[in-house]
């Protein structure tokens, strides 16, 4: 326990640990899961289909395919697009490892391009410089829920005939120039992992306007079986099926969809709550840290992560020390992200090193994500603020 100058032990701000990214689960989800358990149909079924049609309606995409993760969605998108050995795919180092890992899963080569330090999203000029004759696709990530500069990225894609697969793991609610994320690029993958804006425990959704890609992805998501094979044990009687492709086991279960249906129904309400917490953080931390930049005009920011950038020189402590001090105050926090080109595998595989992507490194060295869940009470939010201010004033 830390001691004040008087030698008296400082009590943590909270007696109970505040879990980072704890989801808000209501009675509606609990009742729906119970109903599913009693129904006898736990796997992919009617509730998954309902969640898909609700999600397609929400995003304005022609197709929404429910999966067991966003990672599965990104992998299937690359696989369905026929991307493989010899191909390059450009993405951001300011992301979770899954975004680049899937490029490796299909045998292609991940190529990083630096981010804009203000938006923390891919810098289109850096992308343009990274394009080679082998480049086949771009995977922009809408970091923290802020839509990427899609106009510039889509222009580049059109010019060089690249497929655009958006990683919208943070961006379920995001909009760009009047379009809902999920209805912009060729294919878009969403995450419903336990800490994300819409949660199903594990889960994801792939949206696309294209009938061609939708069919390839649907088949690949369930062993490569022919259409509607999920119905093979339904009340319609046994349905014959065929294996069209050596596919994957990436389908969503009705148990997961039971959560998703109600989470999606409350998506706007939850966003409004996170926006209110965001404004309170902005007000409290103004002038002490580098705060997230305001949302760009004609966009909706999905407010997934509130990231403070610490200035170690003025703060007198580094990122890990700050995180440890928050933990001692019983506040959970995160780092989004340690720049991916500095991770062991990518250093070994691509020979990347410190200095390669200075903007991503600058963020990576300073960023701390604070709790931003609709589950937070006003008191929780004030605890976070008081703890951060107390640490920064030491
Ligand atoms: C969480 C996350 C993923 C992976 O999502 P899963 O549903 O856990 O597979 C991919 N990309 C980003 C940017 C993420 O934050």
Task: Break the fold down into its secondary structure elements and pairings.
Blueprint: H1 27-39, H2 46-59, E1 63-67, H3 70-80, E2 88-91, H4 97-105, E3 109-112, H5 124-130, E4 135-139, H6 150-160, E5 163-167, E6 175-176, E7 179-180, E8 187-191, E9 204-208, H7 211-221, H8 254-265, H9 267-285, E10 299-300, E11 306-309, H10 312-315, H11 319-328, H12 344-350, H13 358-366, E12 367-370, H14 378-392
Parallel strand pairs: 2-3, 2-4, 4-5, 5-8
Antiparallel strand pairs: 1-9, 6-7, 6-10, 8-9, 11-12
Helix pairs in contact: 1-8, 2-8, 3-4, 3-7, 9-14
Bound molecules: pyridoxal-5'-phosphate.
What is the compact description of this entry?
The chain is an alpha/beta fold. 39% of the residues lie in helices and 12% in strands. It has 14 helices and 12 strands.
What does this structure look like?
The chain is an alpha/beta fold and 394 residues long. The protein has two domains: 27-265, Type I PLP-dependent aspartate aminotransferase-like (Major domain) (Aspartate Aminotransferase, domain 2, 3-Layer(aba) Sandwich), CATH 3.40.640; 267-393, Aspartate Aminotransferase, domain 1 (Alpha-Beta Complex). It has 14 helices and twelve strands. It has helices at 27-39, 46-59, 70-80, 97-105, 124-130, 150-160, 211-221, 254-265, 267-285, 312-315, 319-328, 344-350, 358-366, 378-392; strands at residues 63-67, 88-91, 109-112, 135-139, 163-167, 175-176, 179-180, 187-191, 204-208, 299-300, 306-309, 367-370. The strands form three sheets. A seven-stranded mixed beta sheet has the order 1-9-8-5-4-2-3, sandwiched between helices. The protein has a three-stranded antiparallel beta sheet with strand order 7-6-10, with no helix packed on it. Helix 6 links the parallel strand 4 and strand 5. Residues 69-71, 95-96, 98-99, 141, 167, 169-170, 191, 193, 204 line the site of pyridoxal-5'-phosphate (PLP).
């Amino acid at each position: 326990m830390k001691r004040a100058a008087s030698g008296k032990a400082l009590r943590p701000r909270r007696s109970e640990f505040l879990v980072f990214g704890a989801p808000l689960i209501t009675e509606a989800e609990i009742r729906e899961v119970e109903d599913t358990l009693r129904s006898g149909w736990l796997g992919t079924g009617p509730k998954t289909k309902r969640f898909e049609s609700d999600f397609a309606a929400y995003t304005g995409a022609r197709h929404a395919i429910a999966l067991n993760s966003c990672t599965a969605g990104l992998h299937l998108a690359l696989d369905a697009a026929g991307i493989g050995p010899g191909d390059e795919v450009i993405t951001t180092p300011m992301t979770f490892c899954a975004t680049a890992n899937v490029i490796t899963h299909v045998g292609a080569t991940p190529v990083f391009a630096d981010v804009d330090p203000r938006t923390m999203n891919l810098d289109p000029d850096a992308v343009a410089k990274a394009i080679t004759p082998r480049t086949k696709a771009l995977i922009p990530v809408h970091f923290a829920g802020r839509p990427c500069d899609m106009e510039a990225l889509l222009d580049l894609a059109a010019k060089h005939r690249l497929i655009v697969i958006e990683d919208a793991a943070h961006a379920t609610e995001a909009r760009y120039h009047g379009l809902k994320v999920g209805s912009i690029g060729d294919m878009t993958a969403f995450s419903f992992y336990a800490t994300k804006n819409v949660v199903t425990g594990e889960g994801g959704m792939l949206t696309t306007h294209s009938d061609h890609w939708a069919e390839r992805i649907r088949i690949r998501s369930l062993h490569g079986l022919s259409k509607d094979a999920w119905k093979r044990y339904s009340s319609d009687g046994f349905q014959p099926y065929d294996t069209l492709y050596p596919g994957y086991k990436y389908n969503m279960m009705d148990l997961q969809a039971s959560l998703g249906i109600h989470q999606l129904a409350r998506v706007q309400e939850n966003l409004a709550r996170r926006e209110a917490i965001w404004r309170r953080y902005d007000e409290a931390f103004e002038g002490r840290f580098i705060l997230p930049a305001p949302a760009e005009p004609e966009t909706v920011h999905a407010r997934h992560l509130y990231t403070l950038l610490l200035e170690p020189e003025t703060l007198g402590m580094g990122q890990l020390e700050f995180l440890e001090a928050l933990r001692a105050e019983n506040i959970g926090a995160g780092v989004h992200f340690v720049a991916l080109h500095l991770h062991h595998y990518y250093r070994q595989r691509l020979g990347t090193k410190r200095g390669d992507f200075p903007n991503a490194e600058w963020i990576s060295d300073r960023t701390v994500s604070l709790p931003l869940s609709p589950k937070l009470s006003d008191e929780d939010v004030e605890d976070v603020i008081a703890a951060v201010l107390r640490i920064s004033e030491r």
